[in-house]
Each structure stands twice: as C-alpha cells, then as structure tokens.
Design brief:
alpha/beta, seven-stranded mixed sheet, 13 helices, FAD/NAD(P)-binding domain, Enolase-like, domain 1, 22 strands
C-alpha cells in the first residue's frame, strides 16, 4: 500500500498531523497500536483527568462553599464509581470523534504496531500476529510517551500505581502518597484530596511545579495546603513496600534523615518518558539523544533520515498535547512545501488544579539568569470584584516586561480560569505587545481578565488602580 504520508501514533500530534496532511491533498495513513484513537491525552491523560477534576470540584464546592452561597444540602457523599463512569463516557465520546474525523478526511486507519523497515517502509504488526507493509514518501513518528518508572520502585498497578491506574480506582484512598510534585501528580492528587483523601506529596526538589515561575509553586502549595494536602519537599524517595492494604514509602529528607510514610495507595508521578521502543529506528540509522530517549530532529522536525519526521513527546521540548498539535500541523505543511513556524517560547503551560495555574514566556528566574533587565507587576485576585463575587480570591497574575522597551517577556498566573485567560497573554506576546498596550485595552467589568490589565498597569508605571 502506497501513501504520501504514514503517521505512527494517533495522539494529538499524530491525528492532527494526519488531518492536516489530508487537508493539503496528501494520501495519508495513520497507525495506532491501541483499540481507540487519541493516544495518552484522550484515553488516559488530559481528557479523563479533567473529567475527574471537574466532578471532584463540584463535590468539593457542594461540601464546602454551597452553604455560604445560600444552598443547603444534607446527606452529601461522593460516588466515585459514577465519577469514573462519567469519565469513561467522556473519553468514549471524544475518541469516537477522532474516528469520525479520520473517515471525514478519508484517512486510511490501521490498528497495530508500526515499525520502520527502511526509510520508506513501515511494517504493521497486528494483534493477531500477522503483518503487512505500508510504503510512503514521508513518515511521521508521533508515538508519545509513557509514565516514567523509578528503577528502585516498581509499580504493581494495585497499591503502587501510575496516573493510568489513578483514573480508575475502585475506592477513594484514605491516605494517598504522591511521589512527585509536578503537573500530573498535583492534578490527580487534588482530585482525591477534594473527595476526602489525605494526600502527602513527596518531592525531590525544594518546590512544586518546578519548571514554572517559583512564585506560582509557592502560591499553589499554600492554597493546596489549605485544602489538606501536605508537602515533604527536598525529600529523596528510596523505596516503597506493600503489605496487605498498606503502602510504606521510605525517603531521605534534606538532612539525610530517614523518613517513613504510610498510606493505602502510592501514586508515582515523576514525569513521562518518550515512547520509542519497537519503532525500528536502528534499521534506518537513527540514534536517540537525551540519555537515549529522544529522537533528534532539525528545525523542520526532520530526523537525520530525509523524509522521516518526529513530533510531540518523542522530540525535545515540553511534553504538552498542544505543542504536539502545533508540531503536527507544522510538519504537514513542511511536507506540502509551505513555510510554517512555531514560536516555542510562546507555548503555554497549565496546571488544572483549582485555582488553575498558567504560564507563558520567561520566568523571573530565567530572566535573572540571562541578565535581562526587566520590571514586574502583579495583581492579586483578592482585589478583583469578579473573584470576590465567585469566592475565588486565591492567587494573582504577574507580568514581566522588558525594562527598556516594555515588551512583555512573561506572564504567570494562578487563579480562577487561568487556563483560559493565558490565551490573551499568548496573543499579546505573539504580536510583541508591551505591558502598556494591555493596560490601555478595555477589559469588560467585572471579569477575571481585568487582573491581567491591572498587572500590566503595575508593570508599566506601577499604576494599578485597585490595589
């Protein structure tokens, strides 16, 4: 079977690449090893975790804030089985939508494992062991990632679990021990904290969400602590054991002292690792970089083998679904002879806790390290009328601007609907707006986005009005 493009992997990067290739008139095929399309994001990542986050947030608000709003309830209890059922329905509907898009765009779909035979041939191994070959002028590797394993701490899928199992627990943990203070762990940890679990975060670094601006991690930790989560920072996990329904995690604290934490579940969330096994890269002469995990590519996301491209989690950069989507579109347009671009500095990062955390551009730490002179302005949500009205006054927005030109260099926010509000900052920075530009744009009142305007005013001339 001959194609113009064969895509291996149907996550956000792969399926978007396939659709864009088809839109551009290229005869396209896509290979997925699982039964449903959508990859980690749609099946066991972004979408199902957000479904559980929303369900748990509704319960948390009913339990803790409804009375303040004049809504009285009694005999309130969480139904985890129904939450998981609803999550599964959301996933099924979403993945079915991807299948529809494949048919709509006349993309040939194949179920099985795709591996490279040579630079123009992909071997498709099906579940029943049979195989066939697809040939193509161009091949896009979009196989995504999997949870990172700790070599000294094996997960069993029952008591010591990964994010995949955390989406399908049969009971609400009494005490969830969370190894890792990054995005995935904090999101899932907050789900169960809202449902009544004691959650202990054990983090190797001295702060949570360490890749973001330090002020965001500090504020998020303060808010989550108010909700009952506890944090053991600067702790090096050394092992874990299971006895019956009890999990014991051992760690060394910053003083080198031995620490033991007991719970009934342990979630290992220390990041993700590029999935490049069984791709047959050795058959075409591609050598992995970054400790043998990432596929090296050039500025066009093309590997050392002409006509073979790689996108998403298998190449360098943040492991984000929207980054993979942008790269999928980028590669499709490169193959079609167009000249697209991606500004990697302006790919936002989001943590879907509540309050949400979002960031784009450079952090204060990066600006200081680079020696760039900047000015900072911030505005707290406790000074926002809209935030007070909705009882969401935790957090702030911080704007970093060039000290001379006033161009916005970074925007960092923690607060209500930050995941949506960050888009205004991305647009502004894409068009190289100044902090004064934002301060002079009319923002509807009352809205959460007024905080962005006020923070920009504070960065411009320290003239925020409402603080």
């Amino acid at each position: 079977m001959q194609f113009d493009v064969v895509v291996i992997g149907s996550g956000p990067g792969g399926y978007v690449a396939a659709i864009r290739c088809a839109q551009l008139g290229l005869k396209t095929a896509i290979i997925e090893k699982y039964n449903t399309f959508g990859g980690t994001c749609l099946n066991v990542g972004c979408i199902p975790s957000k479904a559980l986050l929303d369900s748990s947030e509704h319960y948390h608000n009913a339990l803790h804030t409804f009375k303040e709003h004049g809504i009285n309830l009694k005999d309130l209890s969480p139904n985890l089985q129904q939450m998981v059922k609803r999550k599964d329905e959301v996933v099924a509907h979403t993945t079915a939508g991807i299948s529809f898009l494949m048919k709509k765009n006349k993309i040939s779909t194949f179920q099985g494992i795709g591996s490279m035979v040579d630079k123009n041939t992909v071997k498709l191994t099906k579940a029943d062991g049979t195989a066939e070959h697809l040939t193509s002028k161009n091949i896009i590797l979009a196989t995504g990632s999997k949870p990172t394993a700790l070599p000294f701490l094996k997960t069993d899928g029952k008591r010591i679990i990964t994010s995949t199992e955390a989406l399908n627990l049969k009971e609400i943990p009494k005490h969830l021990i969370l190894i890792g203070g990054g995005v995935i762990g904090l999101e899932l940890g907050s789900v169960y904290a809202r449902l009544g679990s004691k959650v202990t975060v054990v983090e190797f670094m001295d702060s949570i969400i360490g890749t973001m601006d330090k002020s965001l991690g500090k504020e998020l930790q303060k808010v989550l602590a108010k909700h009952g989560m506890e944090f053991l920072l600067s702790h090096k996990v050394t092992g874990a054991s299971v006895k019956g329904s009890k999990v014991t995690v051992s760690a060394d604290n910053s003083k080198g002292e031995k620490v033991s934490i007991e719970g009934d579940y342990c979630l290992v969330a220390v990041g993700r690792t590029a999935y490049t096994e069984n791709l047959g890269l050795e058959n075409i002469g591609i050598t992995l970089e970054e400790r043998g995990k990432k596929i090296p590519v050039n500025a066009h996301l093309e590997t050392s083998v002409p006509g073979i491209y790689a996108i998403g989690d298998v190449v360098k950069g943040a492991m984000l679904a929207h980054k993979a989507e942008d790269e999928g579109t980028f590669v499709a347009e490169v193959i079609a002879g167009q000249k697209p671009h991606i500004n990697y500095n302006l790919i936002p990062g989001v943590v879907y806790t509540w309050p949400e955390v979002a960031s784009v551009g450079q952090t204060e730490e990066q600006l200081k390290e680079s020696g760039i002179k900047y000015k900072a302005g911030s505005f707290p949500f406790k000074a926002s009328g809209r935030a007070r009205a909705s009882n969401d006054s935790d957090g702030f927005i911080k704007v970093l601007a060039d000290a001379v030109t006033d161009e916005i260099l970074g925007v960092h926010m923690i607060g209500p609907r930050a995941a949506d509000m960050i888009a205004e900052a991305v647009v502004a920075m894409e068009f190289r707006a100044s902090a004064e530009d934002i301060s002079r744009i009319s923002h509807a009142h009352p809205t959460y986005t007024e905080a962005f305007k006020e923070a920009s005013m504070a960065a411009t001339e320290n003239r925020a009005v409402h603080i």
